[in-house]
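Before going further, learn to read the protein records used in this course. The integers have meaning only within a learned vocabulary of local backbone shapes. To see the layout at work, look at the sequence and tokens printed below.
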Amino acid sequence: MADFLSKAAVQKADIIAIQEPWENPYSDTTYHPLKQTHELLFPSSAETGGKSRVCIYISKRFGTEWTHHAHSAFCQEVRFLSPTLGMLRVLNIYNECGTTSTVEMLHELLNPRDQIILLGDFNLHHPAWGGIDSRQDPGSDKLIELCDAADLDLWLEPGTITRDQNGDQTTIDLFFGSPTLTDRLVVCEVAMDCHADSDHLPIRVIVDIETPPPPNNTKRRLWKVMDTEKLEKFVTQNLTSLRSWALDTPRQIDDAVEQLINIIQRGVEESTPWANPSPQANRSWTKECGEAVKESRRQFRRYRSTHSADDWETYRVARNQKGRIIKSALRKGFRKFIEEAVEQGPQGLWRVSKWARNRGQQQQGSVMPALRSANINDNNDIFAETDAAKVETLRSAFFPRPPDADLSDIANSRQRAPFPMPAITESEVRAALKRAPPDKAPGIDTLPNKVWKVLSQGSSERRFIPIITAIFDACLTIGYNPKHFQTSVTVTLRKAGPRDYRVPKSYRPVALLNTLVKILEAIIATRIAWMVEEHKLLPNTHLGGRKGISVDHAIQLILDKHTTTFHTSGYCSIWNKWD
């Protein structure tokens, strides 16, 4: 313990949590060499009913804006206020081997609404944190139940060795945190540079609690209440000039696309209000619910002015009717949400899981720490701290310069004659629009597929479909992709699981294209898929990405090959090679 606390990296920490600290045989305290920089939180035996098995060193940089709570000899807590997150609770625990008494006590202490960091020596083994080869202790399920009840995420990567004694490597020292703090987690790792003479390995955790969450200044339309008739009328009246445009050059195509998008966006402004999101907003809420609430309030105001028995009875009926309408709407909305999730398969089930974990909480964007812009193994790492520097670092990681293609193996090859590509028809455009999912995230023009579906099915269809068909066909004929189709917005998301979020590779990019180009891409993809099958451009053994082909076909091919070989030679072997 003395060697551990003497290390410079340890002394820089804001909070140092120790389990099984050194016991002073002469006084009711423990080793404290950091009197200049840290306060020692070590309750007396009289306060906890026995010698404390955990202690906390808290930096004096915190001042006095914190409180200490000794729940028992095995559990201590520090609470302090964060200007961005409110009250934070840090609990340091020690759970004795073969018991779950401390874990059971935490059920009464933890509230899923609080911002919690839970850490300590749990002395419990389970594959959820020890890896698939870990054994499972009988009481480990209680810790999992605790994390579910308190809505805590595991911060340490499963399988990370935290105790190494004479060849026995286990994962029993754990870190958990609330989802809001998980979004601010920078790194949770074993800190070998701080290791001292102990079988337990030190764990370094960095959480950014000071950076304010990114402001959500992006306005969005309330597409659910879009006046489709007004949109169609406006677009129909303004599309007349586009029908006479020539589409023979890239410049003309760009101008036509820009004018089309401009008309649609002005139509959206006329027909669709801006959303005014509220923390209490519910997607299952309907107009009938709002009318029922208004009627109930109206009847209550009438009763308040007269206090008559008849008005009270009228109000009571309206109030009960309001409750039934809201209950029915919420039930239908939730059932629809579950049905949609089931139809989406595993992806939909993860969506339900995420909703269940985050319901009732205000959603905030993740905080991105300073990023390493040099080699992670280089001792002279350069950190990108400004937004502009982070953008450049992520761009270099996401879009590195591709290597030069090696064309030496096709130097003497002959290209076959190109296949004729007929003009795009209106029926192809209608089919692609019908298949397009309506609520996919739009690109920089903010127009979702729902707008194109509305314009292709109503009174504006006679003018809208011929115009975009002509634009698509012109792009195909001269081989040009309009500038508007090439513009995208790249959103950076954290990769799942415990990672070092100072490394750019811990993030993944999601490019949001303008939705109109996806309609053209769907048409071209359908044509390519047809040509591949019609002209037999792929071998029969190629199964991936082909329509109507599944893993069942691959299994059947293997079985047929096995049967044929066995009947021919009398034996058959199957080799499996993993790269």
